[in-house]
Amino acid sequence: MDAESLLLSLELASGSGQGLSPDRRASLLTSLMLVKRDYRYDRVLFWGRILGLVADYYIAQGLSEDQLSPRKTLYSLNCMEWSLLPPATEEMVVQTSVVKGRFMGDPSHEYEHTELQKMSEGEKVFEEEVVVQIKEETRLVSVIDQIDKAVAVIPRGALFKTPFGPIHVNRTFEGLSLSEAKKLSSYFHFREPVELKNKTLLEKADLDPSLDFMDPLEHDIPKGSWSIQMERGNALVVLRSLLWPGLTFFHAPRTKNYGYIYVGTGEKNIDLPFML
Amino acid sequence: MEDLTSPKQDQENQELGEARRPWEEISASSQDPESGLSEPLEPEQWLETGPQPRSGPPQSPQSRASPPLDDVTGPGAPSPPSPAPEASFIPSTLALARQQLAAPWQSDRTTDVNPKAETPHSHRLEQSSDQGKSTAPQTCQSEGDTFQQSQQTERHLYGSEDVSNNNSKQKELRFNIFQEEDSNSNYELDHTESGISEGAPSPLEIAIQSAKAYLLKTSSKSGLNLYDHLSDMLTKVLDERPENAVDIIESISQDVKMAHFRKKLDTLQNENEMLPVYETAEKQKALFLQGNLEGVDQELEDEIAESSLPNVMESAFYFEQAGVGLGTDETYRIFLALKQLTDTHPIQRCRFWGKILGLEMNYIVAEVEFREGEDEEDVEEEDVTEERDDGDSDAEENDEDELPRTFYKTPQVIPKEENRTGANKYVYFVCNEPGGPWVKLPPVTPAQIVTARKIKKFFTGRLETPIVSYPPFPGNESNYLRAQIARISAGTHVSPLGFYQFGEEEGEEEEEVEGRRDSFEENPDFEGIQVIDLVESLSNWVHHVQHILSQGRCNWFNPIQKSEEEEEE
Predict the structure, then answer these.
(1) How far is A86 from chain B (nearest CA, A)?
(2) Could you state, in order of their start, the residue ranges of all structural domains in chain B?
(3) Which among B55, B79, B248 is positioned nearest to B168, based on CA atoms?
(4) Whole-angstrom Cα distance, residue B288 to residue A185?
(5) CB contact under 8 A, A232 and B326
(6) Do you find a cis peptide bond into B443, omega within 30 degrees of 0?
(7) What keywords are annotated for this sequence in UniProt (chain A) (predicted)?
(8) Which of A93, A133, B131, B231 could make an SS bond with B78 (beta carbons 3.0 to 4.6 A apart)?
(9) Reduced to 3 states, what is the DSSP secondary structure of residue B214?
(10) Residue A254 contacts by C-beta under 8 Å, 6 or more apart in sequence?
(11) Nearest-by-CA chain A residue for B361
């Protein structure tokens, strides 16, 4: 959610039950302003909170002018001092996929994972147990990256693509209408499109290239992995992801307010197909 | 009246170039009243003068800032044609021609918009918007009178409405405003133009007019023309003055087009869509009001009410410090809904248990303890299951000759616990949202708890949904919800050591093995434990809800005992 409308966004997203305590909220307001100034970001988003056993991580992201360029992620343990996280790489994701369970809350904590690796010495091939140390920071980076790629949401029309390439915030975005707000197809994944090219020409003909340049949520697998609810009558639409429980996206139709926040343990819900 | 607006007038070229000069002079003289809108009526006709003066009396100083619409009363009020143009007449003829022109002109205007453009006009498009339009009719009438510009015409002009004209007028108005600043330059231009256009219209003017004619062409699909659309857009931009307008100009264009349609459909669409909001608001309003209605009876119920109604706001405050919470107004509504619950049911104690998120709707759960002897339970269902065993064995005995007999007896169904004991210690009510009706959940049976431990399903939000799972869950969503609530309570409700103590009434430990430690109450002598102690180790925290055994009950039920009794019989 945008750091500028932090209080309102927190209020709107409070239906999920997890929020922020007043002291954290106050410190966020000030520290995010400073982050924006120091790192010269165009926009700072408060991404959410990952719950750990000993402490929680508060995550923020900074965006540059082009909204779809890779975001910089920062974390903090006390909402005041922010540290930049390294960008996620493929091997990080692979490496940390073996770590399961809750986050500890201590960024220097190391998970130990024993692997069987085939080592060859000369002619003999045998397996040896190797203990791999994985730092919690790495795990944090890859989890945030996975969540972003899988479930970060933005409503259709909030961003538009200029002919030169960069994506800009659409200043004339007035909000989705009520009928559009109830459909999953009006929400996009906030990431580089993956499935757009697979669409048939017929479907592509209906798209508006300046607005429809990201994947819609409609075709997510498994189907039904999004819970869409209207709260307060029709005044607020809330999308909750069932794949990464804890991600809440809210939007007040016909207004410019929208945002998403993740408050959860950082564990993917692998049992999803059985639970539906 | 020739209201010469002075510089604004653009140079309308007229065919009557001659008229210009004299008009110019006149305009020059009367430049003062520039109401900006007023245009010289050039009697001359046709022309441009036709386009009348917009606002008519120059004097009315329509402040430049006034909205164009006011000024532009008549569509016709075309911007004051440059003093030069038209005016070819001599003032003396003006008076005569005015009245004549008035009538015919109006009739013509409405019909020909396009042709107007074609008449030679000022080269300034903006200014000539009106002028252009009016010129056409004027040209038609040119034979007749021309003059028009008389005030009468103006009045008529104001009367007739022509959307496009209005727009162009607005535009013109704006340009007039701008142009006031450039008055000097304009004026000079006027002069020069008048010189040029003395004779036949120059090729430049013709080009301008044909360009304008092209812009005024109506689209066969939408009925709009580009000229009007551009003028609408520019008006909007100038009204709203957005930052970096050039970047969002396409969206502005779309908005302007959509604005044409909005008026008709607005009321219909809005009503349908906003209904659920209003309904919810009504329901919640009822919540707020019900407190007031029962003010009289409250004194009597105060004693009971105090103990039964929880202080939700206070606990919400503490939870908020921990970062858990539903938002202040949501919590307040839940508080009111709980109050409604306690008012309608005879409740001893009530507590806000929590909120369970579902796919389509959520559940708000209240944990309730009824007053002694007040709860009505249906005890019929248990007997049915016990009889079934006997029925099966009877049926099989008849076929003993043909079919082999099975000796298998289905394991005895473990009976659920009595109300107020074990897992059924409290009764739970749920509603979908504050203001909605409260539904009581049925008591939980051990089989349901055992199965609930093996499956993992999302809640949909509707209590009658069947649960499809393996192993099959005996019941629907309300039973599953109740089972999960029981498990959560048993597993997670903790309190600091010493906060609760057991009731000291039971002295008979030998006889009642089951009911031994059921009831607990708050310890009045509890003094609190240091926060550091509470945080560092878990030994200072205790569960105060009975653990549910793997059998599904809190108190062990021995199924073998009963079968022994049956065998004896």
Answers:
(1) 28
(2) 229-260, 279-373+411-493
(3) B79
(4) 37
(5) no
(6) no
(7) Cell projection, Cilium, Cilium biogenesis/degradation, Cytoplasm, Cytoskeleton, Flagellum
(8) B131
(9) helix
(10) A174, A175, A176, A177, A178
(11) A229
> If you measure CA to CA, which chain B residue comes closest to A179?
B273
Is A233 close to B330, i.e. CB distance below 8 A? no
Q: Does B322 touch chain A (CB under 8 A)?
A: yes
Measured between beta carbons, the chain B residues lying within 8 angstroms of A170 are 251
Give the minimum alpha-carbon distance from A243 to chain B in angstroms, rounded to a whole number. Answer: 12
**Which residue has tokens 């809800």?**
B545
Contact B215, B227 (CB under 8 A): yes
* Yes or no, beta carbons of A24 and B242 under 8 Å apart: no
Residue B273 and residue A17: Cβ atoms within 8 Å? no
What ipTM does this complex have? 0.86
Asked if residue B91 lies in contact with residue B20, where contact means CB atoms within 8 angstroms, the answer is no
CA distances from B473 to A108, B252, B454 (A): 44, 57, 9
Q: Which of B251, B330, B457 sits opposite A14 (nearest CB)?
A: B330
Q: What is the pLDDT of residues B133-178, one digit of tens each?
A: 444 444 444 444 444 444 444 444 444 444 444 444 545 544 444 4
Of A17, A172, A274, the CB nearest to B324: A17
**Pick from B273, B357, B362: CB nearest A234:** B273
Q: In Å, how far is A249's CA from the nearest CA of chain B?
A: 14
Q: Do B276 and A233 touch (CB under 8 A)?
A: yes
Q: How far is A75 from chain B (nearest CA, A)?
A: 18
Q: Which residues in chain B touch residue A19, judged by CB atoms under 8 angstroms apart?
A: 320, 323-325, 327
Query: Is B276 within 8 Å of chain A by CB?
Result: yes
Q: Do residues B353 and B428 lie in contact, with contact meaning Cβ atoms separated by under 8 Å?
A: yes
Residues 458-477 of chain B with CB under 8 A from chain A are: 458
Unique residue bearing structure tokens 């002075």: B6
Residue type, B343: D
* Residue type at B241 in one-letter notation: R
Residue identified by tokens 């091939």 is: A125
Confidence label for B184 from pLDDT (cuts 50, 70 and 90): very low
pLDDT for position B479: 92
Nearest CA to CA, how far is A120 from chain B (Å)?
45
CA distance A183 to A203: 17
Asked if the structure places residue A76 within a domain, the reply is yes
Q: Which of B244, B273, B484 to mutate to test the interface with A (most CBs of A within 10 A)?
A: B273
Per-residue pLDDT in tens (0 to 9) along chain A, 276 residues:
888 888 888 888 888 888 888 888 889 889 988 988 888 888 898 999 998 888 889 999 988 888 788 888 999 988 888 899 888 888 888 888 888 888 888 888 888 777 777 766 667 777 777 777 888 888 888 899 889 888 888 898 888 888 787 888 888 788 888 888 888 888 988 888 877 777 777 777 777 777 888 888 887 777 888 888 888 767 889 999 988 988 999 999 888 889 999 998 888 888 888 887
B433-437 long-range Cβ contacts below 8 angstroms, 24+ apart: B433/B280, B433/B361, B433/B362, B433/B364, B434/B284, B434/B287, B434/B330, B434/B333, B434/B334, B434/B336, B434/B337, B434/B364, B435/B280, B435/B283, B435/B284, B435/B286, B435/B287, B435/B333, B435/B337, B436/B283, B436/B337
Which structural domain range is residue A169 located in? 3-96+111-274
Dmax (CA) for chain B in angstroms is 135
Chain B residues with CB-CB distance to A234 below 8 A: 273-277
Per-residue pLDDT, B254: 82
Phi, psi of A47, deg, nearest 5: -80, -40
